[in-house]
Amino acid sequence: MTALRVGVFLTGALCVAAVLALVWTPYDITRFDIPGRFASPSAAHLLGTDQYGRDVLSMVMEGARTALAVAILAVALGMSVGVPLGLLAAARGGAVDAVIMRGNDIVFAFPAVLLAILFTAVAGPGSINTVLAVGIFNVPVFAQLTRGAARSLWQRDFVLAAQALGQSPWQISRIHILPNVASVLSVQASIQMSLAIAAEAALSYIGLGAQPPTASWGRMLSEAQTLFGYSPGLMIWPGLAIVLAVFGFSLLGDGLRAAFGQRSAL
Amino acid sequence: MMSLRRRLVSVALTVFAASVVIFVALEIAPGDVARFMMGVEADPAAVEALRQELGLGGHPVARYFKWIGALLLGDFGTSYTYRVPVAQLLVERMSVSLPLAVGAFLLSLSVAVLGALASVHLKERAVSKLISGAATLGIAIPNFWLAMMLVLLLSVTLSLFPAGGFPGWHSPGAALGALVLPVVALGLPQGAIMLRLLRASLLDVESQDFMRTARAKGLSRWQTLVRHGLPNAFVPLLPILGLQLAFLVAGAVIVETVFYLPGLGRLVLQAVTQRDLITVKAVVMVLVLCVVLISFAVDILAAWLDPRFQAKAQ
After folding, report:
1. Residue A226: which of A237, A234, A217, A238 has the closest Cα?
2. How far is A176 from chain B (nearest CA, A)?
């Protein structure tokens, strides 16, 4: 239960920071304050200021908003396409199943970084690319998971009874299968959130993700890297934020899995 | 051998479909590719010349097959920015990326095997808890941040390793030294992921009958774990390992950026900013091929180690 508690606490803190950043941050991060740059942490700037005199705490809060928004959209995209595909594959079997599984293999050949490279090459960098790249890579993850869980449910007596009552495969999938795979899906969604946050950070770091003036933890780190000598502290806070956010969602997933009494995913 | 043939067909189909996706994304989606690469203000005559050079005149389907045909003969086209054959660039950059990926894989495998064995062997001790705790946290650490922290500690503060750059293989000692931190940054978080999976699988295997039999014939607990536990714990993990290896390929793109290593990842990212779509197309195709072939190799390995996989495939 500790895992679940710590996970809920960390993800809760992330959500609070992100929602708060929508309406309020301690300082305006679009305003530069060159005389006040590279300030050490103090009462006025809890985490200090960066090379343009921007408040690091405000930047980290804005970064939380970017990370969470991208991750939620990407996972939602993966689920809203992947889950129906998985249900369909399990319900129809045969050729439909084979085509969907083959499609999964093709998408798995493109890790999110490669998709992001393709999108950026054509459309230029931006957070939309990140959402699409990570989201598309999530589709086969959810499709396979849903298909696997749904196929074993299709053998169960209550589904046979529903078939005997004359319910269509679509009705059965919606009424009987989906609610029974919901717990497995929520565990996976939590784990995919942690991976999506890590991916968003990595893509922004290499310059394919969020562009200025949008604050992003990955971009904060790539800017801080050029300033090794001046202020190592600038590399600590965004990195710590990524670790805690990723850690929080993966603990939440572990905790939910234990709470639902599922075996670990092997 | 039926299943091998079926797998080969499936790999070929996947590669074919992936190549179509790449072709459509980079040659059809941008519209006028020559103008896209040269920018809006470019001289129309120059754009027309590039269009001729790229052979953009023909029907898309004919162009696709021309591209694939040339690829099969090892002709990846000429880089638009470097003005050299892309194949030559690929070979040069591969001499950095390949050792990086292989080194990181070996490191992550040793970390996972040693960590999982030790953690299961010393089950009730504090060390075991420490190992699994460190692995859980290790999963959350992004490789590029670990890389920056390593540079801060070992290069800037202690000046043990270079902070970045690559001297080339003509000075092998310096080249290996330049790869130490990148290998650690890429391999360690990957090792943490594999450690957790392997540990869970090892705990599953440990309670099975053949493990008790092995103990009964006089093997120590450690011997039993290494000889009978480890091979059996690995088998269910193989499909996941294939996917993890693919992530290693993607991770290398990012770690190369941190250390300014002239590998495939940096090549493709620079090509993206310079709109050198010819190079982007070639590198993405090569990386996708790596990912597909790795998971194919892991599939074959799984079938060879465990006949049940083969039965399932048939």
Report:
1. A234
2. 28
Query: pLDDT tens digits for A121-177?
Result: 888 888 888 999 999 999 999 999 999 999 989 988 998 899 899 898 889 999 999
Q: Which candidate in B243, B267, B272 is best for mutational testing of the A interface (most A CBs within 10 A)?
A: B272
Question: pTM for this structure?
Answer: 0.89
**CB contact set of B184 (below 8 Å; sequence gap of 6+):** B107, B146, B150
> At residue A55, what are phi and psi to the nearest 5 degrees?
-70, 120
Indicate the residue of B14, B22, B250 with minimum beta-carbon distance to A105. Answer: B14
How high is the ipTM of this complex?
A: 0.87
pLDDT for position B2: 47
Asked whether the beta carbons of residue B10 and residue A105 sit closer than 8 angstroms, the reply is yes
* Nearest-CB residue to B254 (from A205, A246, A250): A205
Contact B152 A110 (CB under 8 A): no
3-state secondary structure of A24: coil
Q: What is the pLDDT of residues B195-224, one digit of tens each?
A: 988 998 898 888 888 888 888 888 888 888
C-beta of residue B201 within 8 angstroms of C-beta of residue B237:
yes
**What is d(CA B37, CA B263) in angstroms, rounded to the nearest whole number?**
23
Judged by DSSP in three states, A255 sits in helix
- Interchain CB distance below 8 Å, A117 and B236: no
